[in-house]
Amino acid sequence: MRTSRIVNLTNRALQTDQNHTENVSSAYMQVSRPSPSVKDGYHHGDLRKALLDAAATLLAEGGVDAVSVREAARRLGVSPRAPYQHFRDKESLLSALAIDAFEQLGRALVSADDAAAPGQEVEEQAIAYVQFAQQAPARFQLMFGPRRGASDSDLGMAKKAAFAVSERRVRELSQPGDDAEARIVGYWSFAHGLAGLLLDTHLTDLMNVEIPTLIRRATRATLSRTGATPEPGAAELG
C-alpha cells in the first residue's frame, strides 16, 4: 500500500515537472521569436523598389560613384545580402536605375504631347526633355553615360519606348521624299545637345531669351527645310 502511494506521488511529481518544463519552453520560444521589424515590410517584391529609391537618392547626392548595393541596403536597414536577390552587383543596380529613368522620361514626353496645342507637340516635348534633364542632372547623365552598355537589351527597349512618341510626331511632320530617319536623329540630337548645354549653363550665358521660347524657336528651325523665320524677340548673341 505504502509502495503504491510512493509510486503515485512520484508519477505526479514527474508530471508536474514535465508540465513546468513545457511551460518554460513555450514562454522561451515566445520571447526569443523575432519581432516584426522594418525588414519584414520588404516582402513580396517591395525590397526592389525600396533599393531603387535608395539608389536614386545616392545618385542625386554624389553621382554614379556614390551608388553601391551595400550602401543602399545600409540605408534601408536590411541585411547586406538581401539586395542580391534583386541586383547581382552595382552595374545591374545602375542599369535598373537607368531603365526606370527612361520610363519616367517617356511618361513626361507623353504628358507634354497630350497637353500641347495642335502643331506644337514636338516643341513641347523638347521643353519637357530639357526640363527632365534639369530636374535631376545625375539621373540624366546616368541614362546616357558610357557605363550603360549597348548589350543591355532591357535598357535598349526602355530607351526606344521613351522616344516612341517623339519619333511618331517627327514622322508625321515628314513629307514624301524626306529622310525621316535623319530628321528623327536630328531632332533627338538637338534636344539632347540643348539639354547638355543648358545643364552646363553655356547657352544661358550667351542667349538673351527665355528658355522655353528658345527651345520652341530652335525646334522649328531644326525641323524646317529652309530654316525658321526670325520672330519678334529673337535671341541675340552677347
Summarize the structure.
With 238 residues, this protein is mostly helical. The protein has ten helices and no strands. The protein has helices at residues 2-32, 46-62, 69-76, 90-115, 121-135, 137-144, 153-162, 164-173, 180-199, 211-223.
Describe this structure in words.
The structure is a single chain. The chain has 238 residues and is mainly α. The protein folds into 2 domains: 52 residues, Arc Repressor Mutant, subunit A; 149 residues, Tetracycline Repressor, domain 2, CATH 1.10.357. Helices cover 66% and strands 0% of the residues. Helix 2 crosses helix 3, helix 4 packs parallel to helix 7 and helix 9 packs antiparallel against helix 10. The longest helix is centred in the N-terminal third of the chain and has 31 residues. The C terminus is likely disordered.
Q: Could you tell me how far the N terminus lies from the C terminus, measured between alpha carbons in angstroms?
A: 120 Å
Round the Cα radius of gyration to an integer and report it: 31 Å
Provide the domain count.
2
Identify low-pLDDT runs. Answer: 20-41, 226-238
| Largest sheet composition | none
Shape: elongated
Please count the beta strands (DSSP E, at least 2 residues each): 0
Fraction of residues in H or I helices: 55-70%
Q: What's the level 1 CATH class of the largest domain? A: Mainly Alpha
Our count of helices gives 10
Mean of the pLDDT scores? 78
Following the backbone from N to C, one meets helices and strands in this order, namely HHHHHHHHHH
